[in-house]
Amino acid sequence: MTPPRRHRALLAGALLLGLVLGGSARAQLAVEPEALSVAVAQGEEVTQTLTLRNAGSKAIAFCLSFERPLQPDGSGLRLSVDALGSACGDYGEVLALVGEEAIPFPSWSPYGLTMTPDGRLFTAEYSNFPLQTYELTPELAFVRAFPQPEVDELTNNAVTTGVAYNAETGTLWWLNIEDSIVNHQFRVDRALLLEGDLDGTPTGRRIELPVAETAPPPNENGRPVGLAYDPSRRWFYYTDIANETIWAVDSLGSVVDGYPVQPAAYPGASLAFGLDVLPSDTGGQAESVRLEPYVNPPGLSTLGRVTVTDRYGGDTAPGAEPLETPLPPRNPNAPPGVPSG
């Protein structure tokens, strides 16, 4: 009998034990119990015993299969070092993957991601010329590319740091930044939201965003990145990546009372480029709005996660573990990247 083995689930999900068998060995294997499925809550430890009996002459190999893959434990392991067997499949919960070879352009730098109610995905080009938006299927298959609205009236240097869909008007909004380098520091000269239809044709509507006057080096002032729209409040949200704060503005670009904020669920955490908003589900009441910022907790700069906060960045579960989605480890065979939407 195989002795009990302990493993630790750092991500809520279900464990499913699978067998990797070959040849005629299947008919010579007895398993008790015949199937084993274990649900493990976040932070919980579970001990299970499985008996394998091989009456044949060939070796039998098996591994553990996860309905939702676990986060690394220790030095890149998905299981604790004393766990029985190995883990099946690739690391991480990759729902879909698109590589440069799937895009018919020499290079691309997607920044931000938004979806329409009928499942059309749009991601915007950050700085590679020409600035354009890519439409993808929900499986991340390339559909097309089209020029996106941009302005470079002040500095002749425009970059796009976010895109959001407005279901009320059926239009897209792009976060357009004109920036420059002054005395070896990055300065945002103007930040605009530009509206266009789903083919990138500008409507002419624009909203000027407030930019923080100061920021730690190497930034001279704030730098808005990421963009999300809350139809229940008709607010736009974005991250000031230079000051580690989240901003909310109304349709006129005025800062909403109580902003900017820093996520209280992770004091001292650095904010990354991604931000999403869960609109109110109680008739537009602001109290039910939830934010999903991408953060790097203090001391764990390589273990980013998406956390859920209230609309002011506050902890939604005081005294308990913050509600979060740890990001899967990077594929060591893939080029480096960071979430940007």
Can you put this structure into words, describing what you see?
It is a single chain. With 341 residues, this protein is mainly beta. Helix content is 0%, strand content 41%. The protein contains no helices and 24 strands. It has strands at residues 5-8, 13-20, 29-32, 37-40, 45-48, 51-54, 61-66, 86-87, 110-115, 121-125, 132-136, 142-147, 158-166, 171-182, 185-196, 202-208, 224-230, 235-240, 245-249, 270-278, 290-296, 305-307, 309-310, 324-326. The strands form 7 sheets. Strands 20, 21, 22, 23 and 24 form a 5-stranded antiparallel sheet that branches. The model is unreliable at 1-27, 69-85 and 89-93 (pLDDT under 50).
Q: What is the secondary structure topology, with strand pairs?
A:
Layout: E1 5-8, E2 13-20, E3 29-32, E4 37-40, E5 45-48, E6 51-54, E7 61-66, E8 86-87, E9 110-115, E10 121-125, E11 132-136, E12 142-147, E13 158-166, E14 171-182, E15 185-196, E16 202-208, E17 224-230, E18 235-240, E19 245-249, E20 270-278, E21 290-296, E22 305-307, E23 309-310, E24 324-326
Parallel strand pairs: 7-8
Antiparallel strand pairs: 1-5, 2-4, 2-7, 3-6, 9-10, 10-11, 11-12, 13-14, 14-15, 15-16, 17-18, 18-19, 20-21, 21-22, 21-23, 22-24
